[in-house]
Amino acid sequence: MTHVQGDPEQMEAFMKMEVEGPIHMLNLLRYKEDGGRDSYAKYSANTIPLLEKRGGKVLYRARARATVIGGEAWDDVFIVEYPSKQAFIDMVASEEYQQGVHLRHEALEDSRLVCMQAG
User: How confident is the model at residue 119 (pLDDT cuts 50, 70, 90)?
Assistant: First the structure.
């Protein structure tokens, strides 16, 4: 099973989750073979300014080399920091983000997005 768009039940649970302080989002990405990486670059060009406008930043980005445990293979791994859960929600709900999110859907074969918090 692949996951590119969010599941409404998972998003609802995330919205109800009580979180204070910064969060980190782990992004695992597998691109479509024909132009997926290029489409994701366009998505990033649209999204990074929106992220930064809300005080967020990309902390880590790397190409995935090998899966050592598990059966899934990924192309890229990102960790993105948001100053708060609300900053993430505000970004993805914004009109500017919604205008470019189709590029993410066009780019990805599969993905995971995991909210993390230190502590």
Answer: confident
pLDDT at 62: 98
State the average pLDDT over residues 30-51. 96
Question: What domains does the chain contain, in order, with CATH numbers?
Answer: 20-116 (3.30.70.100)
What is the spatial distance between Cα 56 and Cα 67, in angstroms, rounded to a whole number? 28
Q: How confident is the model at residue 118 (pLDDT cuts 50, 70, 90)?
A: confident
Biggest distance spanned by C-alpha atoms of the chain = 40
Both tokens of residue 76? 């890229």
**Sheet containing 108-116: order of strands:** 57-63, 76-82, 23-31, 108-116
Alpha carbon distance 78, 42 (integer Å): 16
pTM: 0.90
CA distance 52 to 48: 6
